[in-house]
Amino acid sequence: MSSLVARRRHPAAIAIVLLLGLIITGGLYAAFAPKNADAASSNTQTAAAGHKLFLSNCASCHGLDGAGGDGGPSLVGVGAAAVDFQVGTGRMPLANPGVQAERGKPQFNDKDTAALAAYVASLGEGPSVPSSSLTQGGGDIAKGGELFRVNCAMCHNFAGSGGALTRGKFAPNLMDVSGKHIYEAMLTGPQSMPVFNDSNLSAQDKKDIISFLQNVKAESSPGGWSMGNLGPVPEGLFAWTIGIGMLILIAVWLGKKAA
Amino acid sequence: MSEQTKARSTADALRADDKKDAPAAAGGGPVGAVANWMDERTGSAKGISYLMKKVFPDHWSFMLGEIAMYSLVILLISGTFLTFWFVPSMGETVYNGPYVPLKGTQMSEAFASTVRISMDVKGGLLIRQIHHWSALIFVVSIALHMFRVFFTGAFRKPREINWIIGLLLAMLAMVEGFLGYSLPDDLLSGTGIRAMQGFILSIPVIGTYISYILFGGGFPGQDIIPRFFTLHVLLLPAILVGLFTAHIILVMVHKHTQYPGPGRTNKNVVGFPMMPVYAAKAGGFFFVVFGITALIAGLVSINPIWMYGPYEPTMITAGSQPDWYMGFADGALRLLPGFLEFNLFGKTWSFNIMIGAILMIPILWTIMGLYPFIEKWVTGDNEEHHILDRPRNRPTRTGLGMAAITFYGILFAACGNDIIAIKFHLSINDITRAFQIGLIVMPIIVFWVVKRMCLSLQRYDRDLVLHGRESGRLVRTAKGRFFEAHEDLDDYERWALVAYESPAPVDLESATDENGVRRKSARKDRLRARVSHYYFKDRVEPVTPMELASAHHDGQAGEQIESHPDEAESGHMHGGAEEIGAAHAYGHPSPHDKQD
């Protein structure tokens, strides 16, 4: 009898078989999962070049003149900021229709994005891409925190970890979003998000909010592992699994000691 | 004679040996001298000797309650530390401490002092996190302890009162936890208090008055934090400790229960005495619990109030949840359908809130409190029980318990519906609807599945007792047939599998007495018979010594009494073992067989 057969009733056998199954499935998935095709790009910078890009990448939904179509809204008056946000975060061109355009790998390089933005801005007046002095942080963190809790936390959570909206929509996590994109999102109100224009939250307020978020990301968690800053749910989960689990292991060990 | 009076008379017997005018102990050294000095002034020797000789059985599941006990001690110690700095006041202040992201922010003194404990006081954050983690583990261990007591039937006579005390402790622990969660006046606690005020307001007619009385006016007012503080550090801990003392004294009076095993009866306790074994074990386990709690508190952040920021009634954060033990009530609110709120007589009736937030906990606790009495009524069992049931041997009870846990678990999971939605990219609406359906359907399915599993496990046990364990050793007979040799269980293993009670359903007595007159209790009897059939109609009886003997010595004849007649007829359980003697068919032949 081979040793493998002899051990088939070992308590760990089922765990090992499961683990093997998982590794094989995961490995096969990783090997065969579809990869992103490299998007065509061009180096031209002008609005005219942007128009060309628009016709080949966006017009099927937004219309030949950007005035909207069956699949997408009009882009007249959305401004360069909206394009920079949507294209720069990979939300547009839309990967697949769903309840919400999801962030993804940007399909255009910075120059093409700028060209597209320049073209859409030429369709009608709208908010432009903010200057870097407003989006690099350096504002009042405490004030920004207060503004964030009043205006943003109800959807994006107190630490910008994101939150659920109705029917599968969600307010995304803000931790890896650049200051520029956060500013543009506030300015243009993409998808479910309301618009926070300059009379609502001044440019300085937006800068403070960005500074607060950058600080949340940069500061170390004084209490230890933050478990994603999602509030009491992960804490309860931890107590029910690892916390009590460790104690029960010790209890089992102590119980065995007597026998 | 009941066990209680017996225990008392045992204690009396111990006292009878006492010499009233005993001279100072000659032996015993300095320790004995001190003990004697104490005893002469307090008479404590009898009690201490009784405690030191008290025997406790050993099993890891008996330590779940211990974890709760130690967590309570940790909570009292760490909580005392926190009161040195916490300021229970709603007075307004402006933060000027070292934590930059809050500098210049207006906040209450309660919040400011909690930030101070977290950021300025040496070791303050660690103690805060120990306190909070310990509170979570406290209620987790209470819940698990309760599961253990329920599934092993430790709530049966004489322990019904202790079961109810335990339920009260569990409820108080939850309330105490909620109050503590509310004290720092951060964004989450403020939201929690606001939600609680909404619950109170949902009580018809008197809700508004209760809210005004509790808050001393409108929400939030200045009074709520100081009042919660008094309840949290004074009133509830006193009741908790008092009830806990009663709980533990009753354990002493009843003796501890034990799992079935050789030599274990309803009249004895098999285990080790308190001194020195349990004192060392339990004492050591206290430090283990404290150590692990401190380890978690040192490594994993909990309730980072400086991130939440101070509470303002205009603010809220996504992912606002209570601590886990209140989660099921929050989940009930998330699942209750909106049409339960309606307008009638010019008033709004918010039953969508009231059912989950106000009525549910008392109803659930009443059901749990009544359960021992219901089961006793069904079984008609008036005996004392000190031997625990294995859960599989009480399939209906185990099924009911698992169904209740499923019901609770779904409410609990529903409380995190938003977190589930973002983490698994699902629609919160679909999740909520699925939970609503699951809340009704799943307990029924789980009951059925668990009951069937218990019955299967019982059959498996039966099979194991009758045929032994598959050894993995294949034997080829002279005729060329193969079978797997079975190893017989030893007597100790077998005992646990055969020595259990298996109540049969009560039969319905005739509805009329011998004179043909209708009995007064006929209807009650009919109900009881029906419930009893529900409980016990599916049963696998334990193996009797006769069955065992015939299974082992008569070979083929043993198959005749199999629970599955079809298998018995074909005789394939051993697949050829009947061709050779039992000594070869079993790995460990009995001495009787060896003589052949």
Describe this structure in words.
Chain A: This is Cytochrome bc1 complex cytochrome c subunit. Chain A: It is a multi-pass membrane protein. Chain A: The cytochrome bc1 complex is composed of a cytochrome b (QcrB), the Rieske iron-sulfur protein (QcrA) and a diheme cytochrome c (QcrC) subunit. Chain A: Its main location: membrane. Chain A: Heme c 2 binds at residues 152, 155-156. The complex is a heterodimer of chains A (259) and B (596). In chain A, helix 5 runs antiparallel to helix 6 (110-123). Chain A contains 12 helices and 2 strands; from the N terminus they run αααααααααββααα. Chain A is mainly alpha-helical and 259 residues long. With 596 residues, chain B is mainly alpha-helical. Among the domains of chain B are: 3-53, no CATH class; 55-389, Cytochrome Bc1 Complex, Chain C (Up-down Bundle), CATH 1.20.810.10. Chain B contains 24 helices and 8 strands. In chain B, the strands form 4 sheets. A two-stranded antiparallel ribbon of chain B has the order 1-4. Chain B has a two-stranded antiparallel sheet with strand order 2-3. The radius of gyration of chain B is 30 Å and the shape is globular. Residues 554-573 and 587-596 of chain B have low confidence and may be disordered. Classes of the chains: A mainly alpha (259), B mainly alpha (596). At the A-B interface, helix 8, helix 9, strand 1, strand 2 and helix 11 of A face helix 4, helix 6, helix 11, helix 12 and helix 16 of B.
